[in-house]
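In this supplementary section we document a worked example of the pipeline. Step one takes a protein sequence of length 205 as its only input; no multiple sequence alignment statistics are reported here. Step two produces a three-dimensional model, which step three serialises into structure tokens for compact storage. The input and output of this example are shown verbatim.
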Amino acid sequence: MMQPANKRTYSDAFNISKRTGKILWELLTPVLPDSKSKDLLHNIEIALYQWMLTNPIKNELPIDNIPFLNGLQFNEEHTLQKNMHVTVTATRNDKNHIELLMPAINPVQDIVAPPKTESCKLKIMATTYSVADGAKASGCLTELDIPYNDLEVPAERITLPLIAEKGSLVIVAMAIEYNILKEQNLHIVYNRERIPAGIIWAGYN
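The serialised model returned by step three reads:
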């Protein structure tokens, strides 16, 4: 039976979530639709706070698909679920390396894109952070360019250069960037309001 949280538990959860949220915010900047949005930062901190109230640091077993964090969207108007009809996710292998699990994708059928889109770029940011002491934080950005046509891209399993060490929170987030043809030239859609982005996997080691 879960014990009711005491005042110390609430205080610790608040302090850790604020500290962790700030670090994650900085690490995830490459995939954030708006890196200046205080509302989005607050949403991340709330999700972290709710998770910290479950006292995960005392858990000896790895956690996959952390509640509150897994599936958190950075753009509620254009979510990954609405704009991508297949699921990209991640996991850890038996050596604790983070692996990206890419399903087969037919770009035209599976990705919702603006008119005149020539290609899409999946920007995937994987991060690890030592939650208990805040001593270690690292991240790596992976970019996958996909021509926007009716040809299927095969499924792929990609091992990222990132290890989930003991006591680390792992966040893998993704954003979809569009390259559109405009006046005979390719332009990246930088209208941040249109960019789908969110957390595709969250785990604790």
